[in-house]
Amino acid sequence: MSDAANQDELAQLRELLIKHPPMARALPAFEVADAPERPGELFVNWLLGALRAGVPDAQVMVLGTAGPDARVVVLRDVDPGEGAWWFAGDARSPKGRQLAADPQASLTFYWPALGRQVRVRGAVEIGAQEGTEEAFRLLSPNSRTAALVGRQSEPLADPAEFTEAWTTAAQRLAAEPDTVAEGYTRYAVRAGEVEFWQGAADRRHVRLHYRRTADGWQRELSWP
């Protein structure tokens, strides 16, 4: 592509960025006075709302680790009472190594159709092996096959190598359905802080911040 064509595309992009402002649509209200005392309960309410509204991949979140580094992962469970958000991954992957070196993480959820964002920050704990094995066996066959393939983020010289590894892993899973991938680990972010953000078309956003204290959860509004 020529430099002139590149400049034309950039000009079009900049124009579209101006003409298509985010959240320029009707969005739900956030009645802070009705928010529960614990953030986990509000999160469950918001996630259920996103799922019921048909928001695609509403259970997907951005995991941030030391590095800094970030990637998209899947929420596997939430414990409102403990204020813990669960996900899984390979302990040998970059995120697994980063969490082992510095067990602190952030989670970010964003549901565009609702203009809602949730941010979770806290210490990371590793789940018990027994529960991890059970959770692995509940995954879809493709998810278990992918975990058995492993080698996440390593260089791939030829796509045919991946196809061969996938076939081998699928055959192993068919022959040994109770097998659990080496390195598969359940992680929990035990929240120290949780922030709920509700966008508004008029830019008068609402932000509610929860902070864990020795006496429970402290709530306060923040400037948007």
Describe this entry's structure for a reader:
The protein is α+β, with helices and mostly antiparallel strands. It has a domain at 24-135 and 183-222: Electron Transport, Fmn-binding Protein, Chain A (Pnp Oxidase, Chain A, Roll), CATH 2.30.110.10. The protein has helices at 3-19, 39-52, 94-101, 129-137, 141-149, 159-175, and strands at residues 60-65, 69-74, 77-79, 84-90, 104-111, 116-126, 184-198, 206-213, 216-222. Strands 1, 2, 3, 4, 5, 6, 7, 8 and 9 form a 9-stranded antiparallel beta sheet that branches. A hairpin with a 4-residue loop joins β3 and β4. α5 crosses α6 (159-175). The chain is globular and about 55 Å long. The mean pLDDT is 95.
Helix content: 25-40%
CATH architecture of the domain at 24-135 and 183-222: Roll
Unreliable stretches, pLDDT < 50, 5 or more residues?
A: none
**Looking at the structure, what is the overall shape?**
globular
Oligomer: single chain
Number of strands: 9
Q: State Rg.
A: 21 Å
Largest sheet: 9 strands, antiparallel
Nearest-integer average pLDDT: 95
The name CATH uses for the topology of the domain at 24-135 and 183-222 is: Pnp Oxidase, Chain A
What fraction strand? 25-35%
Count of DSSP-assigned helices: 6
Structural class: alpha+beta
In short:
This protein is of the alpha+beta class and 224 residues long. Helix content is 33%, strand content 32%.
Give descriptors for this structure.
224 residues, alpha+beta, Pnp Oxidase, Chain A, nine-stranded antiparallel sheet, 9 strands
